[in-house]
Amino acid sequence: MTQQPAPKITLAHVRKEFGGTPAAVVAVDSLSLDIQPGEFLAIVGPSGCGKTTVLNMLAGLEPVTSGTMTMDGKAISGPGAERGVMFQDYALFPWKTVVGNIGFGLDHGPAGHGLSRAEREARVTRAIDLVGLKGSETKYPHQLSGGMRQRVALARLVANEPKILLMDEPLAALDAQTRIILQDELLRIWGQDKPTSERRTVVYITHSIDEAIFLADRVVVLSSHPGRLKRIVDVDLARPRNDETRKSRSFAELSQTIWELIREEAYRATMR
Amino acid sequence: MVQRIAGMMASFSGVLMGNSTAPRHWPAWTIYLRTMGLFCLLWYAMSWLTPNKILLPSPLDVASALRDRIDDGELVANATVSLTRLLVSVSIASLIAIPLGLAMGTSRLLEDLLEWPVELLRPIAGIAWIPLALFMFGIGNGLPIFIMIYTAFFPLLLGTAAGVRNVDRRLISAARTMGIPKGTLMRHVIFPAALPSIMTSARLAVAASWTAVVAAELVGAPSGLGYAIEYYRSMLDTPSVMAFIIVIGTLGFLCDAALRSLSAALMPWANAEEKR
């Protein structure tokens, strides 16, 4: 067993309530979790389990009600460029073209500090190539399909090169084929061919169990109302992962295990 | 109708792309001409039935009066004066109201502070200040410009503030997670996101201000289109009065069309967003 490095992010007894004290709705309760540097962590759970709330708190957009949330030992008190977020509804700037959206953080934020104009442009171009948006550079978001917008949001996140990537259902709006291709791309961007020390840290929210297993080192399963930690499932599938991984027996077994963890609540959620 | 004409202008200037209406239809302006023709015909019939030509001159009389006023330079001179006043007052109003509106939209404190004075002043029509303004400014440029700034100010202020308040929070969140500093956030996120609302309020301001210029010039200025109407009324030259009224309407329409084209050119993204 190798020496475990200090966790990148630590959640200790995190609780999040919305609304006033008497009628407060508890979204997340007593959630404790260590996220290792270079780890790909997926969070799955039925709707209403507070997945997005957890992500917003990690991003610094929502304060925790109680408990602590630290990164590199320091409390997370607000948003920062080292934690890039890809939002579920993309949050693209409608007045910017594809290029303008992807380069926004580089042009106006700390991600572009110390980079020349040419370097910034090169990064944008690389991000565009990566997600397959070539030919759409000068289009505005309203001219793009849902899947294309999602690619722009992904490219914008990648172009900023944050140390930690927080992703909220980033591939949900894509068709099945594109989704598989981008899953492979995502693992490459994350650095699955590189040693752990050179990988970025990813917190990835998805409703797809198979996607979570294919991508992640560990899958956090939450229960709903309020969101609580149900189980952390280690995904010990070899890397690099590819189509063979998707077909393997252990992949199917893991998928079955996680599905059984959330099945009951997922059914109940559909009845609501 | 107004929208179709403006839409055509915009597509002529090549700002809008790829959404032409069915090509076999008559172009919008021919429909416009037909409607106007019908209106003139009705007008002609009514003036023919009216015994006193001073009460309702025929379209032909008005047309010839219009040509006379163009020939003697009255029309261009007065229109230039009124349009200059419009430009000056809307510019001054924008320079004060838009920054104040941006501040009001972002600062709760400032909003609370300004809400009462604004809500008390806003319902007072600009022209209600004319008698007082006559004392303050006398006859000249000062009075109409004061009235027009006053009239343009409130739609601009409230439209800007509302635009800022309605900016999609997710866009601000997205920018903040990229570590965008506060000042940049205002300039590169909040302002562009509020721009469609600001442009709409600018159109309202110009329309209101144009209405006020005529009223103000009727009383308080020795020049301009309003003054010309009053002058020809005292001469009992109703065809010229009608001619100037038509000019006022046409110029008001053209100002709005120009602002629409400007919006479309500034924000090709917003135009398409509205159409969804």
What this model shows, in words?
The complex is a heterodimer of chains A (272) and B (276). Chain A has 272 residues and is of the alpha/beta class. Chain A folds into two domains: 9-82 and 164-271, Rossmann fold; 92-162, no CATH class. Helix content of chain A is 36%, strand content 22%. Chain A has helices at 51-59, 98-102, 104-108, 117-131, 146-160, 176-190, 209-215, 243-247, 249-271, and strands at residues 9-18, 25-35, 40-44, 66-71, 74-75, 83-86, 164-168, 201-205, 218-223, 228-234. In chain A, helix 7 (209-215) runs antiparallel to helix 9 (249-271). Chain B is mostly helical. Chain B has one domain: Orthogonal Bundle (MetI-like fold), CATH 1.10.3720.10. Chain B is built from twelve helices and no strands. Chain B has helices spanning 2-12, 28-49, 59-71, 74-106, 108-121, 130-137, 142-165, 169-177, 182-220, 225-234, 238-266, 268-275. The longest helix of chain B is centred in the last third of the chain and has 39 residues, at 182-220. The interface between A and B is medium-sized, with 28 and 25 residues.
